[in-house]
Amino acid sequence: MTPTRGGDSGSLDPDLGSVDRIRQVLIRAVERHCPSALAAHREDLVQMALVRLLERRASEGTSPRGASYLWRVAYTVVIDEIRRFRRQQRQAEQLPGDERGTPGPEARSEIQGCLDALQDRRRTAVILHLQGFRTREVANALGWTEKQAENLVYRGLADLRACLGGGER
Amino acid sequence: MTESSDDLEQRFRAALPDRDERDCPPADTFWAAAAGELPFEQVRTLVDHAARCARCAEAWRILADVRHAALESEAVVDPPRPLAPRRWDRRRALLPLAASAVAAVGVWTALHPAPPLTPAVERGTGSTTLRAESPQEQPAGDAVLRWSEVPGASSYNVTVLTPDLVVLHQAVGVSARELRLPEGVRQRGAGGLLWNVDAVLPDGRTVGSPTFELRLKER
After folding, report:
1. A5 closest CB neighbour out of B37, B43, B61
2. What local confidence, expressed as pLDDT, does residue B76 receive?
3. What's the CATH number for A106-163?
């Protein structure tokens, strides 16, 4: 077997209908997860990202890259667009980045302290779970079996709840 | 009181500090992590960063949505398998029964070493293994990365990162099987560097290497 990274490449070239599906997914994701001030620009952000995506495809020639590659690049360019949008906003407000820097130790929350106290594997699994990853995706990202991921998320959440004072009963 | 997983998610998200994103890893690194392309230590570093950074947490959540959709609509990211839904709430009712099983699993885990943390995806173990051919330790003033040939590869893309996964240098379309580290990278490599290489095949597929370490020593 040829070891392609992550199994994410090597599929057939997608038809352009995929782009519309990707567009819908990205718009919905930005709407769900970004603050409202940024989400209000979701159509423009995604449109700019897709323009960059198609430009990149054109510049890379006609080699088939696969639908998965398209999803990957689409994700990458939309995050880049979000970051660029924020940089422009910051410049417009003339706020140097440092003014929005990391809060000091006093701002650390209880839940972050409890996460820090978890064992490495449990913490990583739990954070991915809290970011919205399903068990199977946690397993895939971390190179574990699904069962291992499930156990580690389960135990990690139990530890987290116990630390927060609301242990399982 | 029992707090549901959803409540924990809300609490976790509300606690994320809004920090400057200059130190944030590139978005493609997130995808690489989710695709199982990175070793556990690197994923852990990324995940820990995102637990302290609202911007990266947001990028991870968008990533989760995008990968769900990719799986559902294309079934290309991994071979199709039934997705595992979150079942924590249903399981809560079975906790008394499960407690003994969990204890048994705990004993088993304590008595057996953890399995090696290999990525789910096979990399560098097939017939076209990509290996580092340059020494792991090199003089800081003259460091060169070299790697083994992948038959048929049209070019190579090389990424050099710090141990905390900040990308220092990316070389795309390298035709040779070596890359001399630019001076700016060497100057920032005192704490060690990581690097990997992707061989680009004519059909657009890539063959990825594992991530290699490089230590620079002053003469």
Report:
1. B37
2. 45
3. 1.10.10
